[in-house]
Amino acid sequence: MIKRMFVGYLTPRDERQMTDINKRLAGLYILSFYLTAVIMAVSLVMDIYFDNGLVSRGTILITVLMMLNSLIYIIRFWHAESVTSEVINDLNKKQVIHHLQLRTLGQAVYFFVFMTAWMIFLNSLSFTAPADPIGKVILMVLIESILFGLLMYVVGRVKIHE
């Protein structure tokens, strides 16, 4: 019903038409997800730059929206059959787990690089407090990246079924 009202069709749709609608809505969701992240980052930078380090309610609400959006995505796809990986034997399971480990390592490195750059950028804009030393920022982000990588591994491991 919600999909029918959102898209705006009045008559029933066949399977091909519904597949097309679902594909377009999925693309729209992904686009809006990333655009929300960009808007959140721009809003935060503008708040820090123009408001002497104060973060506005709007930026906080966009951040909460992004977090809720991510949480709903994780909950909806946690045990979804369409995103689980079926393993047939031990060799296949080892290959899938190895692929998961490599992907998790890549995600942790990606998180580390961009979060380090982001934290250094935010420290350079600090108007009220002295900036943290680079070594402290890197150590803090390294710990966060390891925890993020472990979390992504657990989420991926849950999606592997024998």
Provide structural commentary:
This protein is mostly helical and 162 residues long. The chain is 76% helix and 2% strand. It contains five helices and two strands, in the order H-H-H-E-H-H-E. The radius of gyration is 21 Å and the shape is flat. The two termini are 36 Å apart. The model has no long low-confidence stretch (mean pLDDT 81).
Strand order of the largest sheet: 1-2
How does the helix and strand content classify structurally?
mainly alpha
Terminal Cα span: 36 Å
Question: What is the radius of gyration?
Answer: 21 Å
Determine the number of helices (DSSP H or I, runs of at least 4 residues).
5
Largest sheet: 2 strands, parallel
Q: Can you give the mean pLDDT?
A: 81
Contiguous runs where pLDDT drops below 50 for at least 5 residues: none
Work out the number of β strands: 2
Strand content: under 5%
Described by the principal axes of the CA atoms, the overall outline is flat
Order of helices and strands: HHHEHHE
Q: Please estimate the helix content.
A: over 70%
